[in-house]
Amino acid sequence: AKRSGKDTIVSWSAGMSLAELEDEELRSALRTAVEDRRVRLAFQPIVELTTGRLSGLEALARWRHEGRDVPPDVFIPLAERAGLMGALTADLLEAACTRLAGWSAGRDELLTVHVNVAPSQLVAPGFVTTVADLVRRHGLRRGALVLEITESGIFADLDAAQTAVVELRRLGVGVSLDDFGVGYSSLAQLNAMPLDSVKIDRSFLARVDSDPRQARFLHAVLRLAEEIGLPVVAEGVERPAQLHLLRALGCQHAQGYLLGRPVEADAVPPLLDGIAVP
Ligand code: C2E
Ligand code: CA
Ligand code: CA
Ligand code: CA
User: From which residue to which does any coiled coil extend (predicted)?
Assistant: First the structure.
């Protein structure tokens, strides 16, 4: 047996590969971190392009383990496999709503906080009730809390997801389709889901300033969203040329390193007055 984390014993059994052992160690450390509520949130600005107004913040999970940040692309799937998503989601939602209520106090304009919710959680028993309780306890305004759900997630169990989305909207909680355009949804399915907005995946923006075909594609995706009446947030804006194109195409909201990197909660208040858009 090998010690790992605070007080967790990971047992090594014959036939286990090194990779499996490492995965097992990381999983056990993550379990301890979730129990101790040490997975934290960073917040990245979502900016209204014409005004520089901060329209919202996306909450992104952060886990520091043995002096390093483990990427969420690694620990979120690990949490899923370890059965930790329910506890982690509840914890992060609570933290996000506490911050949201604090930042919104005394502010006239609506501030939104977007929280990523794994597919398994959206349709988990009790999820909508948990969210209803959060909204009530924190006195959140309608539309202030937005849940981001990936396409793959929403369409895995369409009926259950649709029911959850309808109930969430009734509570005044927004639902945004994350990674829009990456590939799972048919337009018919999209049409059936009462969404509040879509987030265009950053892969659509990656080469728009160098490849005219990519720019036309982005244009088409933006037009489609506009036609069906869905506000768009464009993700992954890193260069001024991408920003200028988005503006020219009439995109209203964007997010990306050029506009602001994810920051810890204590660094958010100065952003609330708006962002200087390049
Ligand atoms: P996502 O929801 O698509 O989040 C956007 C990711 O793009 C974030 O990565 C963000 O830091 C990064 N990003 C933002 N602007 C830029 C940019 O200009 N350029 C580039 N290259 N990247 C940019 P992050 O924080 O590493 O998160 C990765 C993914 O992990 C997220 O993708 C989301 O799917 C998942 N995730 C993060 N936090 C949570 C969470 O609390 N719950 C769940 N279920 N998933 C989460
Ligand atoms: Ca997201
Ligand atoms: Ca995304
Ligand atoms: Ca993504």
Answer: none
Rounded alpha-carbon distances, angstroms, from residue 149 to 16, 22, 154, 236: 35, 29, 7, 17
ipTM above 0.95, yes or no: yes
Instruction: Please indicate, yes or no, whether the overall pTM of this predicted structure exceeds 0.90.
Output: yes
Nearest residue (by CA) to ligand 1, atom 25, is 60
Pairing label, strands 54-65, 68-70: antiparallel
Q: Are 162 and 131 in contact (CB under 8 A)?
A: no
Is residue 59 within 8 Å of 112, Cβ to Cβ?
Answer: no
- Which tokens in the block code for residue 9? 């014993």
Task: Kindly identify the ligand whose nearest atom is closest to the C-alpha of 71.
Answer: 1
Q: What is the pLDDT of residue 2?
A: 47
Q: Ligand 1 pocket test: which of 116, 120, 180 has the largest number of ligand atoms within 8 Å of its C-beta?
A: 116
Q: Which residues of the chain have pLDDT under 50?
A: 1-7
Distance CA 120, CA 222 (A): 29
Q: For residue 83, how many other CB atoms are within 10 A of its CB?
A: 11
Which atom belonging to ligand 1 lies closest to the Cα atom of 73?
Answer: 30
Give the Cα separation of 121 and 123 in Å (integer): 5
Residues in the chain: 278
Q: How far is CA 225 from the centre of its chain?
A: 19
For residue 250, how far is its CA from the centre of ligand 1 (angstroms)?
A: 24
Q: Which residues line ligand 1 (CB under 6 A)?
A: 44, 60-61, 71-73, 76, 92, 116-118, 148, 178-179, 202, 236-238, 255-257, 262
What is the distance in angstroms between the CA of the first residue and the CA of the last residue of the chain? 55
The span from the CA of 145 to the CA of 168, in Å, is 10
CA distance 14 to 216: 55
